Amino acid sequence: KAGVTQTPRYLIKTRGQQVTLSCSPISGHRSVSWYQQTPGQGLQFLFEYFSETQRNKGNFPGRFSGRQFSNSRSEMNVSTLELGDSALYLCASRGMDQETQYFGPGTRLLVL
Amino acid sequence: LAKTTQPISMDSYEGQEVNITCSHNNIATNDYITWYQQFPSQGPRFIIQGYKTKVTNEVASLFIPADRKSSTLSLPRVSLSDTAVYYCLVGRTYNNNDMRFGAGTRLTVKP
């Protein structure tokens, strides 16, 4: 089975711009979660989608949003980028009734 | 919320067994304990998961005492390629915003 894939792998944006990141889960997995990882804050949960519905949300401002499509692929959008949004953005997928999350390689976002 | 505490760093030598302990005093009844390995600029890789007692797979063992307030990841006979950051995660995935990753333990394996 192919693992979780994320595109793009690297991205450079400037302040004020917006960005869309994409995640394709493991085949058959319907849950996709997004995380932000920074050296200072570590791994922080952004949100989770299951069957196209947002099920959980972390403590991030409304500039961070996401969606999930009927094929379980998910996108995350960050609007009005700030310097502090520079981070590794990770998505993880999980099978139904399973506790184990499997992470993708991440998208490294640099905001200048 | 189950806060986790891990050692910041550990050193070992090739061929040794490494034990990394995570403290989680406030673990909830339904929480699972999961360990991940992460290399620089890569996503965390699942190592092992458990609820109580001992779990073993082809790469590691996880020891969880009866009170579940700590857990120990055991890596047998480490190699240089095991140099990475190891994260302890406590929680239930149906409530991700209550899940807590530890700060991670940076393991350095020396020849």
Characterization of this structure:
The complex is a heterodimer of chains A (112) and B (111). Helix content of chain A is 0%, strand content 54%. Chain A is mostly beta strands. The model of chain A has no long low-confidence stretch (mean pLDDT 93). In chain A, strand 9 (87-94) and strand 10 (102-103) form a beta hairpin. Chain B is built from no helices and 10 strands. In chain B, the strands form 2 sheets. In chain B, strands 1, 3, 4, 8, 9 and 10 form a 6-stranded mixed beta sheet that branches. In chain B, a hairpin with a 5-residue loop joins strand 6 (61-64) and strand 7 (70-75).
Write the layout of secondary structure elements.
The complex is a heterodimer of chains A (112) and B (111).
Chain A: E1 5-7, E2 10-13, E3 19-24, E4 31-38, E5 42-50, E6 53-57, E7 64-68, E8 74-78, E9 87-94, E10 102-103, E11 107-111
Chain B: E1 9-13, E2 18-23, E3 32-38, E4 45-50, E5 53-56, E6 61-64, E7 70-75, E8 84-91, E9 100-101, E10 105-110
Parallel strand pairs in B: 1-10
Antiparallel strand pairs in B: 2-7, 3-4, 3-8, 5-6, 6-7, 8-9, 8-10
How would you summarize what this structure contains?
The complex is a heterodimer of chains A (112) and B (111). Helices cover 0% and strands 54% of the residues of chain A.
